[in-house]
Please model this.
Amino acid sequence: MQRMVGLKAPDFKMPGVSGDGERFIDISLNDYKGKWLVMFFYPRDFTFVCPTEIKSMNRFYDEFQKLNAEILGVSTDSEHSHKAWIKADEKDGGIGTLSFPIGADTIHKVSKDYGVYIEEDGAALRGLFIVDPEGILRYAVVHDLNVGRSAQETLRVLQALRAGGLCPADWAPGEDLLTP
Model:
């Protein structure tokens, strides 16, 4: 995998849907200028692990907001699929209203640029990226499709990045930073 952390985040523009499923929107990296962006890729709508991650991120949305951070979910499914997923009843596999949008990387450019595209599946790996307010990629983690990510750990990493110093393993807000 090519080094991306510490470099300018790959620019993007893609269609998407608002978190309430009411509006189709255009989403670009520029929309998040001046804020932290937590962008996570997931493989498909109407699946098993993906809704657990999306709902977890949604539960922590207010905590991310307190840190001047926005959340963006992305998959290679269309904005129409995203809308149907948000609007579908939860007993039918729907995810319900979200506090953040979902991007539709239907031409696969964004997932390729971020190194998470699975060519043979036409889907994205579970990649999570944190971009700082100046557009620099500060954190990247990519892993297997079978394992859901922790919104709580993502929040901790964002807090550590914002702490402005050397954070030891398992650092939590309020704990001392390391001094060289």
Observations:
- The mean pLDDT is 95.
